[in-house]
Every structure is written in structure tokens, then in C-alpha cells.
Protein: Plasma membrane calcium
Amino acid sequence: GLDPFILSGAKVLEGVGKMVVVAVGTRSFYGKIMMAMRSGQSSETPLQRKLNVLAEQIAKYGMSAATLLLITLVIKYLVQCALAPEFPPASIMFSHFVSIIIEAITVVVVAVPEGLPMAVTIALAYATTKMLKDGNLVRQLSACETMGGATVVCTDKTGTLTQNRMTVVRAFIAGNELSSLAGVAAFFKGLPQGTKDLLMQGIAVNSTAFEGPDEAGHIEFIGSKSECALLGFAKTCGQDYRSVRADNKPERIYPFSSEKKTMTTIIPLTNGQFRVHAKGASEIVLRACSKFIDANGDVQVLDQAARNESLRNISMMANHALRTFALAFKDISSNEQQQCSDEDAPLADLTWVGVMGIQDPLRPGVRQAVADCHKAGVIVRMITGDNIETARAIARDAGILTKGGKAITGPQWRQLSPEEQHAVLPRLQVMARSSPLDKQIMVERLQERHEVVAMTGDGTNDSPALKLADVGFSMGIAGTEVAKEASDIILMDDDFKSIVKALRWGRAVNDSVRKFLQFQLTVNITAVFLTFASSVFSSDGQSALTAVQLLWVNLIMDTLAALALATEGPTDEVLERPPQQRNSALITFEMWRMIIGQAIFQVVINLLLLNYGHEIFHLPYTDAGLAQLRTMVFNSFVFLQ
Structure:
């Protein structure tokens, strides 16, 4: 049965009625959703989980290295003291032990990458600021990073993929064909003058739509979507419907009704006759026609061949999921006009003008955006309330429905068992006649397959699915407040292209964190190994890098590197590789190869300088010479980073 409930924020479009308030505040549907969202703590993202594990492991290795260094240096010093001619005084020993402990603590400080959380935060904050310029308002910082690993995007058709504005995209008028939206002006220019006037008269006079300001103050066509499409066609042709309307005041109007599927208007002509303009369902108008206008603008008898050709044109448009509208007219005398019924329009012996195909066209750039998703290894699934034929045609046009892909309706999807749904999912690309519950089930099934799901939605009923998805996108223009609250990212322009921009930034954030990690680990491994090796093998147990030098390196390398590497924007290359798996390693084989290769290279150079620097640079074996050499080693270490 029908749902009798009105939700907070709903708009009454027409009619009069009474309502009983059954729940307010936290007990209302809106309130329950808001409370559920407030209590639901956002879970850690895959990257955060991996970083936490890595930080723990690094801390363990750092502690182990520091403990080993402490024990080794203490034993070495005690052995040296024992072998010395006389045992050093306690004060000197205490001082030496303190310096050993400071060295060990410094190793721990250097080993732990404190800059990592800062790098992640800076990367996310920078990305979200830039994403706002791309039309994405990020409500959850972590959503930006999660989007980088998205494997599936489930998107609404209306308003996201399409413009949510019905438009004339095909037409067959008086033997002339319009094949695309781009050719409207040229098509109209090519029509005979008499046909032009007749066509514009039929569109302007036989219509209830008009131009006026919408809620936001923008000038839009207001009325039925089909009539708005025809007025939009007239405007694109450079014609003003208002002047045509002003010159032709209607004598009689037979409004559009769902039973008759036509609208008819009778206007007076200057020669004392009257003209009947009819428009409506193509098959019904064609049935009422006995004549047609040819390419020269002349009236001819509508024989069977001409009728069949018009039927073929109507059928061809229907196969392309276009809604068709036919236009026809006839001239009648004053007496005939007076004899017309007030109920039934004079729909007989009409002259066929032509048929127009209207459609909600794709937004500019949607095909490219879908192609970018496929190139990036992200599957796009379209969800719509439209019938399956329209859904298939639009999905094919957008590049979503590919060869071997499957389209299904919401009721069919709900009847399948979970196992059958899993069997269908890999090839499922389009869901038509869907309900919000279908979206929720789809998200659950995809997550059971370990997919990272991004979902778009605009209605209050979409909120559970948006909350359940890994990344929920709500519509900034068409979305309800509840949907916006449930989402992670708000599409300010309701455009699918903005989802691809979010994908680019998400991957850029993951790349930035990996770049910083690679750099940080190289510095840390080099510093710890160099400190350990030089302390253990030097005669006085002193490290090549002092505690102050190590802390300086740590400060600069952590802070400035985090700033530099975390604020890099996305490149086109980020969409030319598949998404990272949820369980993929944070540090890849290539990263390890780079880290270890660089660390070995840097350690070798620094140890060579330390051991052979005096000979290479002809430095004296004095305190001043040693200070010079240590300065050179320190600077070499910094420059190598």
C-alpha cells in the first residue's frame, strides 16, 4: 500500500490536507537517523589501521636497536676501563654512562617517525581544501583517504549522470531530421519559412509552461518537463515563445489529460478561420492524421507509405529510450469552431507536422569521467528509478553498460537469495526501478566481497545506504538535509565528474603518505645504522652524529618533509592503475627496494668519509681536524637526504 507518513523537511507540491503529528524530536524518523549518526563512531580507515601497526613495529625495532646499543656500549666501556692501566674515577665513568644513555634515547627518538600522523593530517587537510574548489565538500576527513581505495561507485542516474532537464535531442519535422542536440539551430534554419512559423506556433500556443524565477532566483522554464523541453527547443532556435503567444490568443483550450494523452488549443487566424493545434502521444496523434507536410512545406495526403515511415521514426526513437511527442494541426471555419464540443477536442483529419524525441541528456564530461573510472580499475554501477529500457539506453550512452554487462530491476534483485545476488554482482552494471532498500542491500553484498564502496544518494530514504557505504556522497543541490548529514562528502554541483576528482585526490593522499613514509624510513634506517656502527667501532664510543645533530635532523626531516610531500596534488597517472586492495601492504616491494638501496648507499658513503676522510681531505689528526671531519660527515648526511 501507499506510505501515509510525512517526514520532516518534506515539501507539499499541491493539494490541501490535514496531518496528525505522531512523533517529534528524537522519536521522529529524521530524529532517529540523526541520533544513529551521532552515536555511530567512524571506524578507522584501512590506511590508519596499517599506519598504527607500522608505528608499533617501528617503535619495537627502535627500542630493540637502542637497548642493544646501550648494552654494547656499556660492555665496551667497562672492558676498556678494565684494560686501562688504572681504573678511571667514578665521576668520569658516570659522565660517560650518561652520554651513552643520551645516545641510546636519541636512537629511539630518531627511529620513531613522529611526523607520520602529522603528514597524514596535513595531506588530508590540504586535499579537502583543494577538493572544495573541485565541487566536493568533505565532511569526514578520513573519507578522502578511503576514496583513494574505492573499487566500486554506485551512482544515481538523475541529476548526477544526467542534467535533470528534459531536452529535445531528436526530431523528424516535415521530412527533415534532427539527429543530435548540437544541431538544433542548423536544423531549424534549414526548414521552409511556413513550416518554421507553424512549428513555433504549435509549440508556443499549445502549452501551459512558462519562464520564471525558481527558488534560487534563476530564470527557468516552469511546467511539465515535456512542455519545458519544447519551449527550450524554441529558445535554442532563437525564437521567443512569448511574442508568439501574445499574437495568438487561444479561443478554446483542451488541457492535457492522461486518458486522451493529448492537448489541443484552437486559435483565431487573420483570415477569419481558426487553427487547431494538437500535441501528445505520437501513435494517438498519427492515428488522427490524414495529411502531412512534406520537405517543401506543402500539404500532401498521408498514404500508407508515409504513415509507415512516421511509425518507423517513432519506433526508432522509442528504441533509443526517448519520450516522443507528436505535433499536428488543421484549419477550420468559424462555423466548425462554434460546433466544437467543450469536452472533446476536434481530433480528426489533422495534418501531421512531425515528431520530437525528448530525453534527460547526460551531463557534459560524464562519458570521459566513466571512462576514467574504468581506466582506474573502478567499476561504475548505475541505480535509477526509471524503467529498464531507458536505464539501459542511458547506461550504454554513458559507457556504464558494457558488452557482457547485466541490467536488472529492483523487484527482481530483491527476489534473489544472497547467494544468487553474489552470483549476479560481478556482471551487474545497471539497476532500474530501484528502491532505497535495494541500494542498502547492494552495499552490503559488495562489502561482503571486500569491495570499497562509494555510493551517491539525494533522498532521506537513501541515508542508511549512504551511512553504510565506505564513502557516502550526497547531493548539494538536490539532496535533503538528512542525506547530507548521513554522507561523508557533499557533491556541491551534483555532478558525477566531481566523484572522479575525489578519487584522484583520495589516491593522491595515499601516495603522499607513502612518499613521506619512504623518505622517513630511509632517513631513520640510515641514521640508526650509522649511529650504531660508528659508536660501536669508534675507539672512544662516540657516534658519527651527535645527539644534538640527530635531533636537528629529526626535526627538519620530519616537519619540513611532511609539509613538502603531503601537499602534492594529484597527477593524471593516479587514474592509470588499479585501486589498492584493503589488505595490500603499506610498504610495497618497490618502496622497500628504494629504502634499502638508498640506506646502503648513504651508510657506505658516510662510513667511507668517517674512516678515510682524514686522508682524502688531508685533515690533521687533531681535535680541530676531527671536528672538521665530523662536520663534513654531518653535512654529507643531510645533503644525501
